[in-house]
């Protein structure tokens, strides 16, 4: 199934079923008013949703054109957002460029930070941020949405709890990140609201592209209309099963919890990067200094995971513009 | 006003108004089915809640005895949970004992981590954890619940957004914490579900004990029936206004967001501590090694902030037992 969320005046929006070709949609109906509600009542509502999705694809229902510009994030708020850094190529590049102390257990225990999950941005929403001096960056990622996961579950069991796969942009402020890392308390100001592609899909919709607990697709990233990278999701060093199990080590996960892959990153330089920070560390390694600046207000970023050789991908497109936040003053001393 | 939440089969529970003496309660009524709903519609519902609270205290309404054992956390789920470490006495002790690298800007920028907010524990709920080897610890804290806070607001404006004050136990697993700090990604496995005292109060309920953006009360902490500490909340090095503004630096906060003080800690050794880790670092500093172990299964912890010289405090009591989680297996390699 493919789902999107129509932005309305509620916190959770209105759940839509989207046709396989992303051209048509219908309201999911009273059984599942929102995606969060559907995830919390999955066993009860899934058969009716499947039947309605089949009828939509068969053209047997009166449907509307699907307009991603009307969409919020598939989950406008989630119970929890835990983002990994599961492409170790990225971590190795960062360590090499900055000559930082080794991260403990980097190869065996996933890196993961806790993000805010109450205020996700839709695929075409402007991104309000306070200052260009914060070093605005994007991070193209894949993610999964899980059902209930018990505390202490193993990776295989965790992988079976995946209900949906998503594509996202983990907005990052690089001026805050290193300071927050040195405190040991992790990212907070460095991670403003995360954005999501309009369509969340059940794993079966990905066919062979959902394999080994990884999204086996290229993620195309364009910055101001120019190709920035198209790394492939299959090079994840940990699977989503590993990441979910890591998050559930000392807590149960409630339905709708989101787990992210971290920025998609490939060993081949030809793949480019899914975030500016990575291109800059490659420049530092290759040429001794970073040459690429961070984003400016009015800059745009576009991200789309694509089927090999085909047109549109399964998740639709993130296409956003960075804007200056209305209330950009701040009384806190600069770091 | 004083609020509690009756545990039921919904995610948000049923909102109760609790009498000033914590003896009686009534349902808040259809205007405010849950505390989260009330916070999201505060301007509309506050006058009716105030009138109902006044009638409850005047004995003018049919009420029930207040039973904290029936209570969930005041907010069983919140949109966001950001916990500071605003008592620098604690940070200085930890740094002295472990001789760690200096934390950047420690005296001027609050430490704060992002916690999970979807699965808070009530004041008498058992605390399921996977292993005693994880080094189970409590952290007695105060916290605030805010209304909407715009991105980039200053501390004074942020303080005015405080709707409620709470008392909490930020459960911590010390075997995970240092490793997660060294990764720079911050706490995740080290912070299982947080617990809350039954009663959330509007700041006016605290009278002079809400002053300077701090809770001016002692927090009494007992471990297995023995006094462990009674540090005073007034020694916070940053105010709650500072902490809220820090959290809102690059994001807006949605109504119901929780901001914590970090473990309450005083310079006077006579105050004791509100967490085991701090007692252990004092033992390391004074005697060269830690003498106190961490918690064992079936251990109990009790926390209550008290009015000076009087009986019960404003928030009621946290009194919990640690138990082994049902599904304590874990396939992740040990750190």
UniProtKB/TrEMBL annotation, chains A, B:
Q: Where is the Fumarylacetoacetase-like C-terminal domain?
A: 81-322
Q: InterPro entries given for it?
A: FAA_hydro_N, Fumarylacetoacetase-like_C, Fumarylacetoacetase_C_sf
| The keyword Hydrolase is assigned to this record | yes
Entries under Gene3D superfamilies matching the protein: Fumarylacetoacetase-like, C-terminal domain
Which regions span the lipid bilayer? none
Give the keywords, sorted: Hydrolase
Where does the record place the Fumarylacetoacetase N-terminal domain?
1-77
- One Pfam family in the UniProt entry: FAA_hydro_N_2
A GO term for molecular function: hydrolase activity
Highest rank taxon of the organism: Bacteria
PANTHER family tied to this protein: BLL6422 PROTEIN, FUMARYLACETOACETATE HYDROLASE
Q: What name appears for this protein in its UniProt entry?
A: Fumarylacetoacetate hydrolase
The scientific name of the source species is: Duganella lactea
């Amino acid at each position: 199934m493919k789902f999107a969320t129509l932005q309305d005046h509620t916190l959770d929006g209105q759940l839509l079923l989207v046709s396989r070709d992303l051209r048509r949609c219908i309201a999911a109906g009273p059984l599942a008013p929102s995606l969060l509600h559907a995830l919390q009542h999955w066993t009860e509502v899934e058969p009716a949703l499947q039947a309605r999705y089949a009828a939509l694809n068969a053209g047997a229902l009166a449907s509307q054109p699907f307009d991603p510009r009307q969409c919020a994030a598939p989950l406008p708020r989630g119970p929890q957002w835990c983002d990994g850094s599961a492409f170790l190529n990225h971590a190795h590049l960062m360590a090499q460029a900055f000559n930082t102390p080794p991260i403990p257990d980097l190869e065996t225990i996933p890196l993961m930070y806790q993000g805010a999950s109450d205020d996700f941005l839709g695929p075409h929403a402007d991104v309000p941020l306070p200052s260009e001096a914060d070093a605005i960056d994007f991070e193209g990622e894949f993610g999964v949405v899980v059902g209930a996961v018990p505390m202490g579950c193993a990776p295989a069991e965790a992988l079976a709890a995946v209900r949906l796969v998503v594509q996202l942009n983990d907005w990052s402020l690089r001026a805050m990140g290193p300071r927050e890392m040195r405190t040991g308390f992790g990212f907070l100001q460095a991670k403003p609201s995360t954005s999501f592609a309009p369509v969340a899909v059940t794993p079966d919709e990905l066919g062979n592209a959902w394999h080994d607990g990884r999204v086996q697709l290229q993620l195309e990233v364009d910055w101001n209309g120019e190709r920035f990278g198209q790394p492939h999701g299959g090079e994840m060093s940990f699977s989503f099963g590993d990441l979910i199990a890591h998050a559930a080590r000392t807590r149960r996960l409630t339905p709708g919890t989101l787990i992210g892959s971290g920025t998609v990153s490939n060993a081949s330089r030809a793949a480019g990067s899914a975030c500016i920070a990575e291109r800059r560390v490659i420049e530092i390694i290759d040429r001794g200094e970073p040459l690429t600046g961070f984003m400016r207000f009015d800059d745009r970023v576009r991200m789309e995971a694509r089927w090999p050789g085909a047109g549109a991908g399964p998740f639709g497109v993130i296409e956003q513009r960075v804007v200056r936040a209305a209330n950009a003053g701040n009384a806190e001393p600069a770091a």
